[in-house]
Amino acid sequence: MSDQKLHERLRKLLALSKSSNPAEAALALEKAQQLMAELGLDADDLELLDIESEDVDALLSTSTVLPLYVAGLIRMVTDTMGVDVVYTPRLGRLHFIGNKAKAEIAGYAYGVLARQLRKERQTFLKGQSKRLKRSTRIGRADQYAEGWVTAARKKVSALAIPEKEKALIEVWKEKNMGDLDTCKHRKAKAVRGKDDAWLNGWRDGQESRLDHGVSGSGAATALGHTRRIGAA
């Protein structure tokens, strides 16, 4: 049985240990203590059981220096859901870290919004004249994406991470990910037509939607080198 399943079993036993039925509560507590010993957990580790990582494909970029619109979308999701995030460029994975339920929703939300943005950026890019330099077309598409994220961000409210939860997240990252670098990001090029491109993105970003059912994702293995996502 995997550690994740054992942790889930421990959560259920701890919940049962608070049962109003004394016999049931005592038995659950005894089994919980046995499982804690098996997993090598102490009382300080129990609070960390509610902190998990929801690992999802980065989708928009696997660069070590993220485009500003990608960093902005990631930060929008973490601010909205009240979680933290770590990025693994080598695997092209994002790890949304926090309360289990919030981390899962953050992973889902990012996937939905990133696919919307990727599709609309590609549509905008295809609409650019082939007579333009490729760098100009890419620059405009990046400006479009920055405008899209700016508009989408204005539609949501930030959810602060409680201080205790924030401290637990830091402990979890230290135990599971070690030292982290800060991930840099780059702005879109200031190409000709950038203002119109940004404005088109801003208009389309106002139509962004997040209205599908939540679906979990598989966890990444062999994290490799990971990075914090800086504020955008």
Automatic annotation (TrEMBL):
Superkingdom in the source lineage: Bacteria
Domain DUF2786: 5-42
Region (Disordered): 209-232
Protein name: Uncharacterized protein
Residue ranges annotated for the DUF7168 domain, each copy included: 52-187
InterPro entries found in the cross-reference section: DUF2786, DUF7168, Phage_B3_Orf5
Pfam families the record matches: DUF2786 (PF10979), DUF7168 (PF23771)
Species of provenance: Acetobacter tropicalis
